[in-house]
Design brief:
Elements (H helix, E strand, L loop, with lengths): L7 E8 L7 E9 L2 E5 L8 H8 L3 E3 L3 H11 L6 E3 H7 L8 H9 L3
Parallel strand pairs: 1-4, 4-5
Antiparallel strand pairs: 1-2, 2-3
C-alpha cells in the first residue's frame, strides 16, 4: 500500500519531557483513503514499514520535529519531503502558519 503511493501524509506524537531525545509514541499515516496508526511502543517489528515509509515522498506540516523523532527512531531520513508550512510561507502566508489556518485559507473550510 505505502510502496505504491505517490505521497504519504505523516505526523507524529512524541514525548519530550524528562528525556534527552524525543520518544516516538504514535505515528499517523494517511495513504489515499486509508489511515494507519502506528504504535512504536509495542514490541512489533516495524522495519519493513519504516523502509517502505522512508522510500515514499512524505508530506508533513511543520515537520522539523517529526523528522527529528523519525531519525532518532530509525536512524534514517525520508528520501523526499514536502512541508506544507514551508510551501505556504513561499506563497506569502505567514512563515509559522498553523495547519488549521492554512486549510481554512486555501480550502475555505473551518
Amino acid at each position: 500500500m505505502i510502496a505504491n503511493a505517490d505521497s504519504v501524509f505523516f505526523d507524529t506524537e512524541f514525548l519530550r519531557e524528562r528525556t534527552y531525545h524525543p520518544l516516538l509514541c504514535l505515528a499517523q499515516v494517511l495513504v489515499g483513503d486509508d489511515t494507519l496508526l502506528i504504535d512504536p511502543l509495542t514490541n512489533a517489528d516495524y522495519d519493513a514499514l519504516w523502509e517502505s515509509l522512508l522510500s515514499t515522498p512524505l508530506t508533513l506540516h511543520s515537520g522539523r520535529q517529526d523528522l527529528e523523532v523519525l531519525y532518532i527512531t530509525t536512524n534514517r531520513l525520508p528520501n523526499r519531503v514536502f512541508d506544507t508550512q514551508i510551501a505556504a510561507g513561499l506563497t506569502g502566508m505567514p512563515p509559522q502558519v498553523g495547519y488549521a489556518t492554512l486549510v481554512e485559507r486555501v480550502c475555505e473550510v473551518k
